[in-house]
Amino acid sequence: MSGIADQKLIEQVTGQFSGGERRNDMQKKTILTLLVLALLGIIVGCADTSDFSKALKEAEAGNPDAQFTLGFMYHAGHGVARDDKKAVEWYTKAAEQGIAGAQYILGVMYQYGQSVPQDYKKAFEWYSKAAEQGIAGAQYYLGLMYHDGKGVLQDYKKAFEWYTKAAEQGNAIANTKLGLMYENGKGVPQDYKKAFEWYTKAAEQGDAIAQLGLGFMYHDGRGVPQDYKKTFEWFTKAAEQGNALAQLALGFMYHDGIGLPQDYVQAYKWFNLAAAQDNEDAKKSRDGLLKAMTPAQIAEGQRLSREAMEKIQKK
């Protein structure tokens, strides 16, 4: 990529990889809610959620599993009208009796202010309890709180420790975070080879940020020999998941003919997709490219953009 293209990407990647979450608040809440319900489905497992009266009776008698199940029923509106306040009440009772899944869910709720006032300290407390019991998601979020200094003093070494525990259980985002820490030398000595290894694990699990990171490592020859073909492959995987920076990067590769033939139609397609996500550099690059394209090329670029967007939205 050209020097200007590189600088634009570096500035944006620094922001995207700088810690904290990478989605806006509404997206976070939607995704986290789905994660919560999926987790509950796994942990509750064979628990009987078909009989609300039975669950209520057992929960009121102090059975922690029934309390957790009841919290799930209120949270999901399963067998009873949805009531987040009651869900929190029963999750708390179960969590206080040591149910790790309930502790994890409460951590999520307090971290993002879902059905409770946002409270990082409480989130940290509940994540800690669940993490100590081996819940990978809680271990990841505990690492994130140490990394960002939310609810606890910032401590990169502690962040690294908890990310590692989560990663060893197969948590893809934790793998990505470890790659980031090794790449930037935060909490650990800078080591591009180890960064590459962790990014690879996460990328193979489908994490778009790790795929983007691998693309840049192959592009720059950090931790691995420079390989534009591999750069293109990993940028494409991330871009096809809707990652705007990967789409922008592909646009630059096609525009400049880096590792592949120069193709303004393809460049327009990827710039246009990133621009649709309000990426300002993509908008400028797309609009600047119009001067060098024929009306037929522009029309084809727009058609390809629509087709790609439809595929992304179906995933």
Q: How does this model look, in words?
A:
- With 315 residues, the protein is mostly helical.
- Helix content is 72%, strand content 0%.
- It has a single domain (19-240), classed as Alpha Horseshoe (Serine Threonine Protein Phosphatase 5, Tetratricopeptide repeat), CATH 1.25.40.
- The chain has 17 helices and no strands.
- The longest helix is centred in the N-terminal third of the chain and has 20 residues, at 25-44.
- It starts with a helix and ends with a helix.
- The relative contact order is 0.07.
What is the overall number of helices?
Answer: 17
One letter per element, helices H and strands E, the order comes to HHHHHHHHHHHHHHHHH
Beta content:
under 5%
Estimated radius of gyration: 23 Å
The largest pleated sheet is described as: none
Name the CATH class. Answer: Mainly Alpha
CATH architecture: Alpha Horseshoe
Q: CATH fold name, please?
A: Serine Threonine Protein Phosphatase 5, Tetratricopeptide repeat
Instruction: Using the alpha-carbon principal axes, give the shape.
Output: globular
Helical content stands at over 70%
SS class: mainly alpha
